[in-house]
Amino acid sequence: MIQLQRINELARLMRAESMDALIVGPNTDLTYLAGLSPFLDERFKSLVILKDGRFFHICPELYYEETREALGPETDIFVWSDTDGFLKAADAANHSYHLDHMTIGINDAVRAVDLLSLGSVVTATFVVADRVLEQLRVCKSAEERDFLRMAARIADEVAAEILPSIHPGTTEQEVKKKIGELFAAKGTPELAFETIVASGPNSSRPHYMGGSRVITDHDVANSLLPREHLSWRLRQLSHRARTARGRTTWEVVESSPTTTSWSWISAAGTTDIAPTRRGWCL
To answer: What is the CA angle 14-86-51, rounded to 5?
Structure first.
């Protein structure tokens, strides 16, 4: 659903930065402004916002229905086919909205190859729009603050509930799958990106994307838990879980100062937790 209040505020910020238009490619900016999260592929698709608050969309015909549903019946949508390519649609938009000689901002989801092609039909000065978009999104509304609180609660619950599933003999992939199931059971939206579970020597890799390693005794295991539309608060949590045999198996040490990132230390087969150094675990 199009967010008119946000678009109007963005238009105000654009005017303050002497920006005539802004091309918003498919990333969280587009979701924030229009409720659109299209399939990410090589096809050019973007919302274009003018400094007076008007807007239109350039869209592949494959995604027309979902785009129309999000933007409503009044929005101009310039549709293109794989046979023709997107430049004809861009040229039609240029003729309708007179984009030539404008200063046009670009968000970081617009591919360089598409921007170079766009320059063949639109004579404009293209500039980076990160500053304008950051100003729009940095101040959270009451609704967004409620989402932050909800996200914090859900993250805490999942961090505790995953403990019984983490034990020597299980793989990183199995833990990752279980984390996704726990979030889904709580009604959270789809993953923003793939959950990271890194154990043992893999725990030193912040963006480790494997999953085949088998967890062993006294491993350190890090997990990054991303969820779309949910941001997680910072907090420290120390929690000991008992197995059916009454053994202490895992302790959550600390959360990351950025995304939801938890570290556990395996101590299977003993009632003692391996000593850890307090501090932020990435």
So the answer is: 15
Residue 159's Cβ-side half-sphere holds a number of Cα atoms within 13 Å equal to: 32
Beta strands 261-266 and 125-128: pairing type? unpaired
Residues in the chain: 282
Whole-number mean pLDDT of the chain? Answer: 80
At the second CATH level, the architecture of 4-138 is 3-Layer(aba) Sandwich (3.40)
pLDDT digits (tens, 9 = 90+) for 149-172: 888 888 888 888 988 888 889 999
Ordered by start, the domain boundaries in the chain are 4-138, 142-266
Cα separation, 22 vs 49, in Å, equals 5
pTM here is 0.72
The one-letter amino acid code at 213 reads: R
Query: Which CATH architecture does the domain made up of 142-266 adopt?
Result: Alpha-Beta Complex (3.90)
Work out whether the CA dihedral 235, 240, 244, 249 comes out positive or negative.
positive
Are 78 and 57 in contact, with CB atoms under 8 Å apart? yes
| Distance, CA of 237 to CA of 255 (rounded, Å) | 7
| Cβ atoms of 236 and 247 closer than 8 Å | no
What are the distances in angstroms from CA 45 to CA 30, 121, 215? Answer: 10, 16, 43
Look up residue 280 and give its two tokens. Answer: 């932020």
Render pLDDT for 175-189 as a digit per residue (tens, 0 to 9).
999 988 998 898 877
